[in-house]
Write a structure and sequence with these properties.
Thioredoxin, alpha+beta, two-stranded antiparallel ribbon, Thioredoxin_domain, Glutaredoxin, 71 residues
Length: 71
């Protein structure tokens, strides 16, 4: 469900952002390291630090606004 939303955000924001999707079933260490309890979990990192996180679906325009706050 999030894949088309993430594609839209990436397409709209271009090189300003990097979007990475991790399959936690194939990468349980990543889920553990970032304490992911639910899917989807969205996390915004800036310079290696977590700036924002949310579990659940979010619309593209809302996500773009949130990302813009951290650019």
């Amino acid at each position: 469900m999030m894949a088309p939303i993430l594609q839209q955000v990436k397409s709209s924001m271009g090189d300003k952002v990097t979007v990475i999707k991790i399959d936690i079933d194939k990468n349980p260490a990543a889920a553990s390291a970032y304490n992911i309890q639910g899917v989807p979990t969205l996390i915004i990192f800036k310079q290696g630090q977590t700036k924002w996180r949310q579990s659940g679906v979010i619309q593209a325009n809302q996500l773009q606004q949130i990302i813009t706050q951290y650019l």
